[in-house]
Design goal:
This protein is an alpha/beta fold. It has one domain: Alpha-Beta Barrel (TIM Barrel), CATH 3.20.20. It has six helices and 13 strands. A hairpin with an 8-residue loop joins strand 3 and strand 4 (75-76). The longest helix has 24 residues, at 2-25. It is globular.
Length: 242
């Protein structure tokens, strides 16, 4: 009886230790532990002290919006920034992809203005809710944009977790030959999407570099396999002024 008790006690201790470890690994996204951030209009680059030295390394700034009702005019959301200490991405949110020539000229001119203001402009990010079944058409739009974009600028897009799980491999491969990175969104509004672990398990199928977008204060447990994926480039925290 004593032997079985000792064995049962050892198993119980192991279970409790595992539960404790699991509880500790699940936490809230604290911006102080990260160095790449997405900023909504009206927000300033974060004055944070992340664990990595040197402060914020990368900032994505939502600057313009192309709304559903007008394919010819971009809505300005932010003045030209001055962020000399970090790599800067100019983000354009789109509700449609049939851009007029004036929109392309405006975006390219804005990139040049940001660069002339002393920013280290990494490139252009497109924030568009491309449906998983519509990736082929999205890739065609991005290929046209890439041809117009000066070679010194990289091209980034935001993406859905569902892309890697259910996206057409041929369309994903085409996308991989056009964009330099995709930022996978794991949140909706101010909350982490429940069940994100299931979707993230398929990220290794993405044939291109990617970052994982986290929402400030959202729940997060980093999948173990993520750090081993050669395409994984780190995290981007979407700040919400909590």
């Amino acid at each position: 009886m004593g032997r079985y008790w000792r064995l049962g006690g050892a198993v119980l201790a192991a279970v409790l230790a595992l539960a404790c470890c699991r509880a500790e690994s699940v936490g809230k996204v604290d911006p102080r532990h990260y160095d790449a951030f997405f900023l909504w209009p009206g927000m300033r680059p974060p004055d944070l002290a992340p664990d990595l030295p040197g402060g914020p390394k990368v900032v994505y700034l939502l600057a313009r919006e192309l709304r559903r009702g007008d394919a010819r005019h971009l809505v300005p959301l932010r003045a030209v920034p001055h962020v000399p200490s970090a790599e800067v991405w100019l983000t354009v949110r789109c509700e449609r992809l049939d851009w007029g020539d004036g929109v392309y000229r405006h975006v390219l001119g804005e990139l040049a203005r940001w660069q002339a203001a002393g920013n280290h402009v990494a490139g252009l990010q497109i924030d568009f809710d491309a449906a998983t079944k519509g990736l082929d058409g999205y890739a065609a739009f991005l290929a046209n944009l890439r041809r117009r974009l000066p070679p010194r600028y990289r091209l980034s897009v935001t993406g859905l977790m569902d892309w890697s799980a259910h996206g057409d491999p041929a369309a994903l491969a085409k996308l991989g030959g056009i964009v330099d990175e995709v930022v996978i969104q794991t949140y909706q509004g101010r909350r982490t999407i429940p069940g994100y672990e299931r979707y993230l398990s398929s990220l290794s199928l993405l044939p291109l570099p990617y970052r994982v977008g986290l929402v400030e204060g959202g729940e997060w447990r980093a999948p173990v396999a993520l750090a081993r994926d050669p395409h994984f480039r780190g995290y981007v925290v979407f700040l919400v002024n909590r």
